[in-house]
């Protein structure tokens, strides 16, 4: 899974975890609803800046159910 894809899935899963609709989630994040209106569509392609803004409030250890990160050996 690419980092961008993981970030998008974390954002989607965090919204579901909070039990918010897109409008409520936008208010929670302090962003315009238009920025995330299409976040549940498979082809949603936010900018890097948008991903950073949306990832900021998500706890570092939050992972979507079923996603496991394997770290490379040093």
What does this structure look like?
The chain is built from four helices and no strands. The chain is mainly alpha-helical and about 70 residues long. The protein has a single domain (about 5-55), classed as 434 Repressor (Amino-terminal Domain). Helix 1 (about 5-20) crosses helix 4 (about 50-55). The radius of gyration is 13 Å and the shape is globular.
Features:
single chain, 74 residues, mainly alpha, 434 Repressor (Amino-terminal Domain), globular
Reconstruct the topology from this structure.
Elements (H helix, E strand, L loop, with lengths): L2 H16 L3 H8 L3 H4 L11 H8 L19
Strand content: under 5%
Shape: globular
Identify low-pLDDT runs.
Answer: none
Largest sheet: none
Count of extended strands: 0
CATH topology: 434 Repressor (Amino-terminal Domain)
Number of helices: 4
CATH architecture: Orthogonal Bundle
**CA radius of gyration:** 13 Å
Helix/strand structural class: mainly alpha
Name the average pLDDT: 89
Number of domains: 1
Q: Please trace the helix and strand order, writing H or E for each element.
A: HHHH
Distance between the termini: 20 Å
CATH class: Mainly Alpha
Fraction of residues in helices?
40-55%
